[in-house]
């Protein structure tokens, strides 16, 4: 649900304006390779460590900072990073599990010049 946010979609395009063929998420203590099976843009989402992302020159990529699920509520914080720009996009979400699916209850976004 996080990678399908409408606020994120316009940022997930390449220089030609075409949608990316694969979405990359950096693995860390909150998300390990192989933990999640997702498809985006018709390709499996890659969960890779930062060294691999840098070595392959992949751009942009998502960094999941917080992913806490407590009962029927979840808090998620992630950022969209890009080596081609010093501008990072931050997303904070509160979700609730209602009627057999997760719903976004609150969404905050921020641009941050690093």
Topology, element by element:
Blueprint: H1 6-9, E1 24-26, E2 39-40, E3 43-44, E4 46-48, H2 50-56, E5 61-70, E6 73-81, E7 87-98, E8 101-113
Parallel strand pairs: 1-4, 1-5
Antiparallel strand pairs: 2-3, 5-6, 6-7, 7-8
Number of domains: 1
> Rounded to an integer, what's the Rg over CA atoms?
14 Å
CATH topology descriptor: Nuclear Transport Factor 2, Chain: A
* Average pLDDT number: 84
* Low-pLDDT segments: none
Structure, described:
By secondary structure, the protein is mainly β. It has one domain (2-113): Roll (Nuclear Transport Factor 2, Chain: A). The protein has 2 helices and 8 strands. A 6-stranded mixed β-sheet has the order 4-1-5-6-7-8. It has a two-stranded antiparallel ribbon with strand order 2-3. The two termini are 27 Å apart.
Give the gist of this structure:
With 114 residues, the protein is mostly beta strands. The chain contains two helices and eight strands; from the N terminus they run αββββαββββ.
Task: Provide key terms for this protein.
114 residues, six-stranded mixed beta sheet, mainly beta, two-stranded antiparallel sheet, single chain, 8 strands, Nuclear Transport Factor 2, Chain: A
């Amino acid at each position: 649900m996080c990678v399908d946010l409408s606020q994120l979609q316009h940022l997930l395009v390449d220089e030609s304006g075409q949608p990316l063929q694969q979405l990359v998420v950096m693995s860390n203590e909150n998300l390990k390779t192989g933990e999640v099976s997702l498809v985006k843009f018709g390709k499996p989402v890659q969960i890779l460590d930062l060294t691999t992302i840098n070595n392959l020159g992949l751009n942009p990529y998502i960094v999941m900072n917080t992913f806490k699920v407590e009962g029927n509520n979840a808090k998620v914080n992630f950022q969209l990073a890009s080596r081609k720009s010093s501008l990072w996009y931050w997303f904070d979400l509160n979700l609730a599990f209602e009627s057999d699916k997760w719903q976004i209850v609150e969404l905050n976004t921020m641009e941050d010049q690093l």
